[in-house]
Amino acid sequence: MTDTQQPNTFYHSAPYKDVFDILYPQESYDGDIHKYRCKSCKLPTTDINGRLENHKPDCEYRLSRSAAPA
Ligand SMILES: [Zn+2]
Predict the structure, then answer these.
(1) What is the pTM of this model?
(2) Which of 51, 60, 66, 69 is paired with 15 by a 20 to 30 Å CA distance?
(3) Helix-strand-coil split of the chain, %, nearest 5
(4) Residue 47 is inside which H or E element, if any?
(5) What is the pLDDT of residues 26-38, one digit of tens each?
(6) For the chain, which residues make up each domain, given as ranges?
(7) Ligand 1 centroid – CA 59 distance (Å)
């Protein structure tokens, strides 16, 4: 038994499926302080547009937030 796979009951029970999700880890890129991208999947924040489903399907952050099978 490990304690690293506890179900995330907080997000699982959250009623806001459509809420903007901008809490993912970000980093600047291209040497431009105005350009940010997801640290996990490297997609620009302008592409993600605050939507979890806009991250790459294998994005670590997206996976961590969508524990339930689609
Ligand atoms: Zn991502």
Answers:
(1) 0.66
(2) 60
(3) 25, 15, 60
(4) helix 45-48
(5) 999 999 999 999 9
(6) 19-65
(7) 5
